[in-house]
Amino acid sequence: MKRVAIFGATGYTGFELIRLLLSHPRAKISALTSEQYSEQPVDQAFSPFRGRLPGVAFGKMEKMLSADVDAAFLALPHTVSAPVAEAFLARGIPVIDLSADFRFRSIPLYESVYGVRHKSPAAASKAVYGLPEIYRQPLRRTKLAAVPGCFPTSVILGLYPLLKEGLIDRKGIVADCKTGVSGGGRSPSLGFHYPEVEEGVRPYGLPRHRHNPEMDQELSLAAGEKVSITFVPHLIPMVRGILATCYATLRPKVSEEAVAAAYRKHYAREPFVRLCPSGVLPSTKDVAGSNFCDIAFRADGRTRRAIVVSAIDNLVKGASGAAVQCFNLMMGFPEEDGLRAAPLFP
């Protein structure tokens, strides 16, 4: 049984980590941090988990840096995560970071996207991008997993087989994504306030959302050449979920069977990627509360257009579920531990 700490435990991703790890057969939550709720009893601060966390140490982040644990999950804002990760890594404790601090392979790129100086560039050089479907073996060997952003997860998983197999042009790729309001975090902000969102759909983060460079980085590595996609996120009136619809141009003489073969090659044995059967398209409702990514694709030989649709729960496969998946690989556990729950429906 591995003892784990969750830093930033009262945000939405922190709550999801607690929910998933409470059902994990080989993990025990030993420490929780929250700057806002640290003076409150655990059962009051974590009312959905009342009675499920007996004896858990709970307090401010600085006091928990010396916690006696076997792994640390960091559900903290960017810039805050980096020094915390560095402190645990110095003690030889594996870290699964859900912020953006270690996702970028280029420190100058991270600094330009987030407008801050990176606090732990040495640690960043050792991080592995936390997408198991692509980096499974490196994740087994690393001490630092950088869990992808939610939008990048949906888009990268959708497009990766096509770019890796050289089936689409690297120029002119468009990712049109819809997300629920929980993607804005638990701290209230006017743009994500539900009365402002209900009955409407609106784009945001234009002309270049900060997840865009993360997508470009990983898709360029898949293609073996520079890829720069057009990414447009939209906020819709639901709590959970991301639906990504990606458009690309097929290279000459690429058949629909070649496209289907590429997806089977990369995902047929993946435990958390489900290729939709013929006639079925993904829905956020079908993956809610689960670690699944559902993918469907259509290829039109006449117009040379490829359309790929992927659906994830932004708080699970797009964040905390992926973090637990990385943790399992890093610890040598079965990859599905703590993640076997079926989607919630209705």
What does this structure look like?
The chain has 346 residues and is an alpha/beta fold. The protein has 2 domains: 2-126, Rossmann fold (3-Layer(aba) Sandwich), CATH 3.40.50; 150-314, Dihydrodipicolinate Reductase, domain 2, CATH 3.30.360. Helices cover 32% and strands 20% of the residues. The chain has 12 helices and 14 strands. It has helices spanning 12-21, 42-45, 61-64, 81-90, 107-114, 121-124, 132-141, 150-164, 194-197, 212-223, 256-267, 316-331; strands spanning 2-7, 27-33, 57-59, 71-74, 95-97, 128-129, 144-146, 174-179, 202-203, 230-235, 242-249, 273-275, 293-300, 305-312. The strands form 2 sheets. Strands 3-2-1-4-5-7-6 form a 7-stranded parallel β-sheet, with helices on both faces. A 7-stranded mixed β-sheet has the order 9-10-8-11-14-13-12. α2 (42-45) links the parallel β2 (27-33) and β3. α1 crosses α12 (316-331) and α7 runs parallel beside α12. The two termini are 34 Å apart. The model has no long low-confidence stretch (mean pLDDT 94).
What's the story with the biggest beta sheet? Answer: 7 strands, parallel
Global morphology: globular
Number of helices: 12
Q: What name does CATH use for the topology of the largest domain?
A: Dihydrodipicolinate Reductase, domain 2
**CA(first)-CA(last) distance:** 34 Å
- Describe the strand arrangement of the main beta sheet, using strand numbers: 3-2-1-4-5-7-6
Q: What Rg do the Cα atoms give?
A: 20 Å
Low-confidence stretches: none
Mean pLDDT level:
94
Strand content: 15-25%
What proportion of the residues is helical, as a percent range?
Answer: 25-40%
Structural class: alpha/beta
Number of domains: 2
Write the CATH architecture name of the largest domain: 2-Layer Sandwich
Q: How many beta-strand runs?
A: 14
Order of helices and strands: EHEHEHEHEHHEHEHEHEHEEHEEEH
